[in-house]
Amino acid sequence: MEPEVSLDSLLAQLATSPIAFGTDNPVNPALRADLEGALHAADVENLDPAGVVVLEQTPAHVADLRDLAQDLANSTDYGTVIVRTPQVAIGVSDHLNRAQIERGERAMVAEPDYADGLHAFARAADGVTVHWPLAVAVALLVLAGIAVAAAMTARR
């Protein structure tokens, strides 16, 4: 049976710190310091403001973690909320798109050190993003140019 994660406890922790823990653990103070240091690093500024929740276990339904992250984001001023367990990293954000978040999640979970994982999330999320409306508009302009050139050539 999985231990129940207290939303109220996590919200109370996030009200005073950008880091929250699902359980009390002797390693929490050192991990908090590492994660807070990572959050203040220049390469993580694209996540700002960000909150990080550390849970000791992954629930049977990983989607529950996304729901938890979204509930925390909706109830706090954090623009990005990341929930990290030993096996999974889940994020939600109001300024990163889904592709950026998913790249960040994969990069973060590949790092066993949680602070290094936060840096990896930020770097991966900051990668190249295709702006589809602009790409489609450029493609249409190129095709229109080709059609005009073909029409002019056919008239000659």
How are the SSEs ordered, and which strands pair?
Blueprint: H1 7-16, E1 19-21, H2 28-39, E2 50-54, H3 63-75, E3 80-84, E4 89-93, H4 98-109, H5 114-125, H6 132-155
Parallel strand pairs: 1-2, 2-3
Antiparallel strand pairs: 3-4
Task: Kindly describe this structure.
- With 156 residues, this protein is α/β, with parallel strands linked by helices.
- It has a single domain, classed as Diaminopimelate Epimerase, Chain A, domain 1, CATH 3.10.310.
- The chain is 53% helix and 12% strand.
- It contains 6 helices and 4 strands; from the N terminus they run αβαβαββααα.
- It has a 4-stranded mixed β-sheet with strand order 1-2-3-4, with helices on both faces.
- Helix 2 packs parallel to helix 5 and helix 4 packs antiparallel against helix 5.
- The longest helix has 24 residues.
- The termini are far apart.
- Keywords: Membrane, Transmembrane, Transmembrane helix.
- It holds the Pfam family Rv1476.
- It comes from Corynebacterium jeddahense.
- What is the rounded Rg? 21 Å
The helix-and-strand class reads alpha/beta
Count of domain modules: 1
Tally of separate helices: 6
Transmembrane segments: 132-154
InterPro entries: Rv1476-like (IPR046498)
Keywords: Membrane, Transmembrane, Transmembrane helix
Pfam families: Rv1476 (PF20381)
What's the short story on this structure?
The chain contains six helices and four strands. It is α/β, with parallel strands linked by helices. InterPro entries: Rv1476-like (IPR046498).
Characteristics of this structure?
Diaminopimelate Epimerase, Chain A, domain 1, alpha/beta, about 55% helix, about 160 residues, 4-stranded mixed sheet, 6 helices
